[in-house]
């Protein structure tokens, strides 16, 4: 018997998230370069973004040739653009510090993110040298990730959704990102509840 899906949120009915989804207004565009493996991953958080931020675009691919059209669009686009990606310890200070304002002239700001496991995100970054020259927005989270249903490659790792929430607050200090975090919390809670007890026990309880 095939699994039934909610026509609104797109999740299986057993983990329908509609009750936890509250679209929020924001003048920042979100583009996500998504590794193909993430597109069908049940625990992926990027798929939550368009439900809360309708201006989100999910762009699937891995190498430079997969994103030729994306590069052309970004080149032609007006407005400040920031790649949300952690700085190396040896890198210069952030090009786009967390005090950066979104009110620059020329168009809406855009946050560009890579959606993948840490190892695959690093590979995608190296496969796409056009990303290296973009202004970068990086930050040190004040609190740890609440995304406890997938293993992280770094102690300071955030889910893609959490990275968006932090990025938005960097551009708009004081912005209420609760709708984003509530959607992720609901997804995590329902995924855990749907797991067999022996599987659920493997994950860290909050």
Automatic annotation (TrEMBL):
Pfam family, one: DTW
Membrane-spanning ranges: none
Leading EC class: transferase
EC numbers, comma separated: 2.5.1.25
Molecular function per GO: tRNA-uridine aminocarboxypropyltransferase activity
KW S-adenosyl-L-methionine (keyword) present: yes
Keywords tagged on the record: S-adenosyl-L-methionine, Transferase, tRNA processing
Similarity annotation: Belongs to the TDD superfamily. DTWD2 family.
Name recorded for this polypeptide: tRNA-uridine aminocarboxypropyltransferase
């Amino acid at each position: 018997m095939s699994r039934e899906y909610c026509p609104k949120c797109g999740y299986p009915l057993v983990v329908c998230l509609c009750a936890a989804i509250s679209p929020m207004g924001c003048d920042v565009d979100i583009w996500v370069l998504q590794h193909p493996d993430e597109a069908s991953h049940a625990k992926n958080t990027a798929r939550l973004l368009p439900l809360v931020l309708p201006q989100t675009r999910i762009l699937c691919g891995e190498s430079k040739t997969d994103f030729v059209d994306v590069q052309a669009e970004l080149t032609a686009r007006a407005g400040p653009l920031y790649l949300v990606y952690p700085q190396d310890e040896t890198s210069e200070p952030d090009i786009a510090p967390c005090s950066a304002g979104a009110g620059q002239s020329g168009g809406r700001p855009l946050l560009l993110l890579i959606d993948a496991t840490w190892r695959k995100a690093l590979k995608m970054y190296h496969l796409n040298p056009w990303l290296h020259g973009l202004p970068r927005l990086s930050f040190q989270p004040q609190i740890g990730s609440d995304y406890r249903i997938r293993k992280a490659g770094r102690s300071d790792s955030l889910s893609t959704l959490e990275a968006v929430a932090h990025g938005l607050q960097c551009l708009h200090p004081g912005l209420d990102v609760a709708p984003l975090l509530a959607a992720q919390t609901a997804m995590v809670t329902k995924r855990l509840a749907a797991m067999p007890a022996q599987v659920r026990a493997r994950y860290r309880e909050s």
